[in-house]
Design a protein that fits this description.
This protein has one helix at 12-30. The chain has 38 residues and is mainly alpha-helical. The termini are far apart. This is N utilization substance protein B-like protein.
C-alpha cells in the first residue's frame, strides 16, 4: 500500500513569518544595515 501525504500550501501569514525570520537572520549575520537586506 502506498499512502500519499497531502502537502498543504503554507498560509500567507506563515510565509510572511518565514520571510521575516530569514531577513532578520540575514541582517544579523551579514552586519549590513536593514535597508541593504533584501
Amino acid at each position: 500500500m502506498t499512502e500519499q501525504k497531502q502537502v498543504k500550501k503554507p498560509s500567507a501569514r506563515r510565509r510572511a513569518r518565514e520571510c521575516t525570520v530569514q531577513a532578520l537572520y540575514s541582517w544579523a549575520v551579514s552586519g549590513n544595515t536593514a535597508e541593504q537586506v533584501e
